[in-house]
Specification:
Number of domains: 2
Pathway: Cell wall biogenesis; peptidoglycan biosynthesis
Structural class: alpha/beta
Protein name: UDP-N-acetylglucosamine 1-carboxyvinyltransferase
Subcellular location: Cytoplasm
CATH topology of the largest domain: UDP-n-acetylglucosamine1-carboxyvinyl-transferase, Chain
CATH superfamily of the largest domain: Enolpyruvate transferase domain
Function: Cell wall formation. Adds enolpyruvyl to UDP-N-acetylglucosamine.
Number of strands: 24
Largest sheet: 4 strands, mixed
Bound molecules: uridine-diphosphate-N-acetylglucosamine, phosphoenolpyruvate
Helix content: 25-40%
Number of helices: 14
Main location: cytoplasm
Shape: globular
Length: about 425
C-alpha cells in the first residue's frame, strides 16, 4: 500500500464485564438543540441558548450558522449567543448537510426571513432513504417556488411566505419543525395537520413563542400558527435528552450495577418505562430529576413496535434490542419508521447475539452471554448499542466508525469511565 493511501481512524476499545456504579448525567437533547439553533435565524436580535450539548452535530450546526453569517459567542458553560443581523450566504453546503441531515432545518427559517435559501439535498443515509419531499411540498403550499438543481434545493419566496393548510401525509419531526418556523413569520394563518407530537417539537414551539410567535396546539396533531411580522431575541434552555436517558436505562439494567440517572426526563419516557416494566426493569424515583434503575433477576421477553411519540422511539430500538438478547424467551422488534434500521443486527450477532431479520421485524432469541469482537458502529444509535454490548461482553470489543457516536452522545467515554467502565480510544491505520 502506498504511504499516502493509509488513512487513520479512531476506534473505541472496551473491556467488558465490569460492574458499573455511580451517577450518569443526561445532557441537553441533540434533537431539540438543533431546531432551537436553527430558530435563531428567524430574528436579527440576539438569542441565547443554554444547555447545548458538546457534540459533533452541534458543532456542525454552529459551522452552518457561521457560514450563513450568524455571530456566535460563548457566554458560559454550554451557553452560547446567536445573532444573525445580515446573512453572508444563503446556502447550506453539501459538506455540512452530508455530515448532518438536520441541516435541512435552516431551510424554513431562511426562506421565511430572507425569501431565499439553498440547501444541499440530504440524500439517503444508513438508516434509510429519508426524503424531504414533505418539507418541500408544505413550503410550496405556503407560496415558495422550489427547484432542485445540481444537487441543491433552491427555494424562493420573494414576496414572503403565506399561511396555508398543511396536511402531512406522514408524520415528520423535522418537517413539522421546519414549517413551524416558516409559518411563524408567514403572512396569515397556517394549520399543520398530522403534526409530530415529539417533545422536541413542543420545545421548539415554546422557544418560538418566547420570541413572539403566535402558536397554539403544539403537542397535539393540529398546530395553528398565526404569522407575525417580526420575532425578537430570547433566552432558552435545551430540554434533557430522552434518548440518551433511555440509553442509560438499558445500560443500567444490563450491567446490573448501582446506576443513578440524573436529569432524567420521566415526563418524556412514559411509554418506554411501561415497556421497561414489562421486561422487569424498574425506575425508582429518588428525587425530582434523579432515578435509580433496578432490575428483576430474570428479564422477560416483549414485543416492541417503533412508532411516533408518544409510543416507542425508533432512536431507542437498537439499545432495547441489545437488552432483549438477555431476556428469558423470544422477543420481536418491528421497525416502522425507517426501512433500513437493522444495520446493528449483524454486528450484535458478531458479539454472540441470535437475531434474525424477517422483513421489518427482528426476532431476538435469548443468549447467555456476549463475547468481545471487532464491530462496526453503523449509525448513531447502533453505536450506542455497540457500546452497551461491549460493556456486557466478555473480553475486549473494538468498535470502528465511532464518529457516529460522537455525533449524538456528549462525552460518553468520560461519563462511562466515571462509573467504572474500561474504555479507551486508539488511532489505527485503515
Ligand atoms: C434531528 C432529528 O430530530 N432527528 C430525528 C427525526 O428525524 P427526521 O425528522 O428526519 O425523521 P422524520 O420524522 O421526518 O421521518 C419519519 C419518516 O417519514 C419519512 N419522511 C420524512 C420526511 C419527508 O419529507 N418524507 C418522508 O417520507 C422518513 O423517511 C421516515 O420514514 O425524527 C426521527 C423519527 O423519530 C428520529 O429518528 C431522528 O432522530
Ligand atoms: C437518526 C438520528 O439523528 P438524525 O436525524 O440527525 O440522523 C438520531 O438522533 O438517532
Amino acid at each position: 500500500m502506498l504511504k499516502e493511501d493509509v488513512k487513520l481512524r479512531e476506534v473505541l476499545i472496551i473491556e467488558g464485564g465490569n460492574r458499573l456504579e455511580g451517577v450518569l448525567e443526561v445532557s441537553g437533547a441533540k434533537n431539540a438543540a438543533l431546531p432551537n439553533m436553527a430558530a435563531t435565524i428567524l430574528t436579527s436580535d440576539e438569542v441565547i441558548i443554554e444547555n447545548l450539548p458538546d457534540l459533533l452535530d452541534i458543532d456542525t450546526m454552529k459551522k452552518l450558522l457561521l457560514e450563513l453569517g450568524t455571530e456566535i459567542n460563548h457566554i458560559k458553560d454550554k451557553t452560547y449567543s446567536f445573532k444573525l443581523a445580515t446573512p453572508k450566504s444563503y446556502t447550506a453546503p453539501y459538506d455540512l448537510v452530508n455530515k448532518m441531515r438536520a441541516s435541512i432545518l435552516v431551510l424554513g427559517p431562511m426562506l421565511a426571513r430572507f425569501g431565499y435559501a439553498e440547501v444541499a439535498l440530504p440524500g439517503g443515509c444508513s438508516i434509510g432513504a429519508r426524503p424531504v419531499d414533505l418539507h418541500l411540498k408544505a413550503l410550496e403550499k405556503m407560496g415558495a417556488q422550489i427547484k432542485i438543481e445540481h444537487g441543491y434545493i433552491k427555494a424562493y419566496a420573494p414576496k414572503g411566505l403565506k399561511g396555508a393548510h398543511i396536511f402531512f401525509d406522514k408524520i415528520t419531526v423535522t418537517g413539522t419543525e421546519n414549517i413551524l418556523m416558516a409559518a411563524s413569520l408567514a403572512e396569515g394563518q397556517t394549520i399543520i395537520e398530522n403534526a409530530a407530537l415529539e417533545p422536541e417539537v413542543v420545545d421548539l414551539a415554546v422557544m418560538l413563542k418566547k420570541m413572539g410567535a403566535d402558536i397554539t396546539g403544539e403537542g397535539t396533531n393540529r398546530i395553528v400558527i398565526n404569522g407575525v411580522k417580526e420575532l425578537h431575541g430570547t433566552y432558552h434552555k435545551v430540554i434533557p435528552d430522552r434518548i440518551e436517558a433511555g440509553t442509560f436505562l438499558v445500560l443500567a439494567a444490563l450491567t446490573d450495577g448501582k446506576i443513578i440517572i440524573k436529569n432524567y426526563p420521566s415526563q418524556y419516557l412514559e411509554y418506554v418505562e411501561e415497556i421497561s416494566n414489562k421486561i422487569g426493569i424498574h425506575i425508582v424515583k429518588l428525587s425530582d430529576n434523579e432515578v435509580l434503575i433496578k432490575r428483576e433477576e430474570k428479564l422477560r421477553p416483549v414485543n416492541i413496535e417503533t412508532k411516533e411519540y408518544p409510543l416507542f422511539p425508533t432512536d431507542l430500538q437498537a439499545q432495547f434490542m441489545t437488552l432483549l438478547c438477555f431476556a428469558d424467551g423470544i422477543s420481536e422488534i418491528t421497525e416502522n419508521i425507517f426501512e433500513n434500521r437493522f444495520m446493528h443486527v449483524p454486528e450484535l450477532n458478531r458479539l454472540g447475539a441470535d437475531i434474525e431479520i424477517k422483513g421489518k421485524t427482528a426476532i431476538i432469541r435469548p443468549v447467555k452471554k456476549f463475547t468481545g469482537a471487532e464491530v462496526k458502529a453503523t449509525d448513531l444509535r447502533a453505536s450506542a448499542a455497540m457500546v452497551i454490548a461491549g460493556l456486557v461482553a466478555e473480553g475486549e470489543t473494538k468498535i470502528f466508525s465511532i464518529y457516529h457516536l460522537d455525533r449524538g452522545y456528549e462525552h460518553i467515554d468520560d461519563k462511562l469511565i466515571n462509573i467504572g467502565a474500561k474504555i479507551r480510544r486508539e488511532i489505527v491505520e485503515e
